[in-house]
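Hallway conversation turned thread

IA: we were arguing at lunch whether anyone had actually written out C2H2-type domain-containing protein end to end. Turns out nobody had. So, for the record, here is the sequence (69 residues) and right after it the structure tokens. Reply here if something looks off.
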Amino acid sequence: MTFVCEICGKTFKSEWGLKLHDKRHRGTGRFACCGNTFYTKQAFNRHTCSIHGVEKPFPSEQCGKKLST
């Protein structure tokens, strides 16, 4: 079964995915930082760790940039 966004027509495999996508259309994210809105705690945590994290001990094997995860 697929779930279709009535606004833009994008399809999702789960109702949860569609509900999350709908929040983006409505601008109702729960977590805000740096002028961005994040719709899940996981996305917010990923942002704060990668952008605001102090320690970045993991260098990229491709470019050498240091990352926090």
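OS: looked through it. The two ends are 34 Å apart (CA to CA).
IA: good, adding that to the notes. The beta strands are 3-4, 11-12, 31-33, 36-38, 58-59, 66-67.
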